[in-house]
Amino acid sequence: MDKDKFSAILPMITAAVTDKIAATYHLDEDAAIEMLYSTQLYSFLEDEHTKVWQYSADKIFDLYRKEIETGELELPDY
């Protein structure tokens, strides 16, 4: 995927996941964004080459939740 398309997609994915974080943990949007940005998952998500951005928002949220609960990021073997 070219850089412009990826730059357009990443904010949409991030918004969908932060909405789920905010709703699940009863946070405002800014706090949810800060929580997501502080994870290893987000560093993988913002790297187009990892292909994490191809997962659904639900799957990314599940990965987020597992990382928060265990302190470790486990990506699926797709």
Tell me what you see in this structure.
There is one protein chain. With 78 residues, this protein is mainly alpha-helical. The protein has one domain (3-70). The protein is 67% helix and 0% strand. It is built from four helices and no strands. The protein has helices at 3-25, 29-37, 40-45, 57-70. α1 (3-25) crosses α2 (29-37) and α1 packs across α4. The chain is globular, with a radius of gyration of 12 Å. The mean pLDDT is 94.
List the helices and strands and how they pair.
Blueprint: H1 3-25, H2 29-37, H3 40-45, H4 57-70
Summary tags:
78 residues, mainly alpha, 4 helices, 67% helix, globular
Briefly characterize the structure.
With 78 residues, this protein is an all-alpha fold. 67% of the residues lie in helices and 0% in strands. It has one domain (3-70).
What does the main sheet amount to? none
Number of domains: 1
**Share of residues in helices:** 55-70%
Q: What would you call the structural class?
A: mainly alpha
User: How far is the N terminus from the C terminus?
Assistant: 18 Å
Q: Which ranges are low-confidence, i.e. pLDDT below 50, for 5 or more consecutive residues?
A: none
The average pLDDT value, as a whole number, equals: 94
H-E string: HHHH
Number of separate helices: 4
Overall spatial form? globular
The overall strand count is 0
Radius of gyration: 12 Å
Instruction: Indicate the proportion of strand residues.
Output: under 5%
Oligomer description: single chain
